[in-house]
Each structure stands twice: as structure tokens, then as C-alpha cells.
Amino acid sequence: MQISGKAAPCDMTPSDQTAATPTVDIHSHFFPEDWPDFGARFGGAPWPRIAHTGPGQAMILLGEKPFRPIQAPCWDVPTRLADMDTQGIDLQVISATPVLFAYDRPVDQALYVAQHFNDAALEMTARSEGRLAALCQVPLQDVDASCRELSRAMRAGHRGVQIGNHVGLTNLDDPGIITFLHHCADEGAAVLVHPWDMMARERMPKYMMAWTVGMPAETQLAIVALILSGGFDRLPRSLRLCFAHGGGSFAFLLGRLENAWHNRDVARGEIDRPPSHYLDRFSVDAAVFDPGALRLLVEVMGPERVMLGSDYPFPLGEQRIGGLVREAKFLSETARAGILGGNALAWLGAPATAAA
Ligand code: CO
Description:
The chain is α/β, with parallel strands linked by helices.
């Protein structure tokens, strides 16, 4: 896998044309054009499947129930590359969509599914002339199987892993998940934590509130659990961890967390220093859709810990990828270049020459 440093050929803004680093989108999703009938093979609760409904159009179903309409950029590499050219994106990191995780299945089934989608992701990157990179998925309900599949996927060409922010009632501070994150650091794998299986779904059945309210809360919960449990004290600093959607509600509510930590013993968790001490242990993407929110995020996390991430090609993703970062007047050009690509290259563990 090579990182392409070449500039996209058209529709580039002046800052892109002079930028020394490629523009990298670290948060985008794919679905293969087709996949095996897991329901027929394994049975059990309804499995995700894809039904093509017209040229470039498909529906993801859970059993017979529609889950999400999707379009050709999910599976068609030339369409995706054309969109990247239009939007001035040099390199895009693709990862599966959480509906494919299978964390609630028997581990042998989840491993089979993970291997299938991991291999499918590499088929897409192989057709991208170096402009797509992939994060694998693992059966996170089983630490040994997860470690083995991560190692297999990294050897095959993946750059890291995307994990859900929890497994059932287990948060990221679970000893098994901490062991897996250790293994990610040992393998040099970038880790993207994506919210999924949102809390209180029964109270948010409509209006996509599970996505607009539940997902940010899930991500905040994951970060807070990892901090207060002392999880970061048990993990190596070499671990390259990123949380999607700007870290959800975390940055905006860090003050509340700090206040609780200082004023209530029961809120102190297992750490001797306040939660803000751990801000240099993880990164977030910039998918916050609002200049004021981006400004707060950069102030809280530091410009070196924010990376362009679009959630492409979904409607809840950034429609003009990078527009928010490119147009943010409060960013220095150094900070902007880092957020648009330099930070991502470091997160991916790209060779230094890739940024030249
Ligand atoms: Co996403």
C-alpha cells in the first residue's frame, strides 16, 4: 500500500495546490457490491444483505427489513475516485459500516464475516492506484480472535482497524479490549473508534435521533470510560487512537467532567490526575459540521489531534468534504495543513517520505 502524494487533477482550492501534504479523509465507509448469504449459512437473527434496486442504487436489508439505501460510491471505486477528485481529497481511508460488525454473533461467525469484508476492502484499495487505504474489522467479542485477525489483516495490507465503541454492556475499558488495543499498538495499527448499537434506542425510534443524539453520547461514553478507568495508564503511548464524529459530546462537556472529578470522590474513577490530563492520548475527526464546534474542538484537543473525517458517502456525512476545515478563519495555515492531512499521515503511520 502506498500513500499517493499526487494532487487531485481538478477543482482544487489554492491552498491545496500549495499544500505540502496530501489531503486525507480518515473516516469513510464502504459496502461491497455483493456478499454471501450469511443468513443461509449461519441462521440466527436477521443478517445484513444487499439488494440492488437500480443502476448505482441498492438497499441494505436486515433480513427483509430495509435498513439503509446506499449508492454506487459505497462499492464502485471509479465513482469514489471521481468524487475525491471533485472534492480535492488525495487519500481516503475506508472502513466497514458498523451494521456489519457481528459482535453479537458466535465468534466463529463474526470472524468469518470480518475476514470476508476485510478482504473485500483490500480488493477496493487494490483498484484505487494508492488513493484508498483500509481499516479492518475484528470480532471484538473475542480478544484472541481479534488479535489474530488484526495481525492477518495488517500483513495483507490494512492500515489499522475500526472498532465499535462497545460490545454489548462492555465498554472500551474492558480488560480484553485493553489487551486488544495493546496488540494494535504492537502491530502499528491505527484505531478508529466508531459509535454503534446506540443506547436508549427504544426512546429514539424516529427522526434518526439514534444517530444525532445517541451516537455522540456513545462516543463520549467510550472516551470517558477509557479515561476514568485508568485505561490510558495501562496502554502504551504509541497507541494511535481516534474517535469518530469529533469525539461526540466529549469536548463540549469536558468541563462538566472536570468539575465532577474535582468535587465528587465517586466521580474520580481510577485516575490520580484530572481527565484533561489524557487529552494527548487520542485524536478525533473533524466531522462536527459547525465552525464554532470545530473551533472548540481544536482548542480542547489541540490542532495536532484533529483530522479530516467525512463519513462519506452517507447523507449524515460532510457533503463538501473538508469545506469546514478549509474555510475556518481561526486556523493557522500550519494547523489547517495538519488537520487536512499531516495528522492523518502520522496516525496511519505513513513513511515520512509520503509527506514530501
Ligand atoms: Co461513520
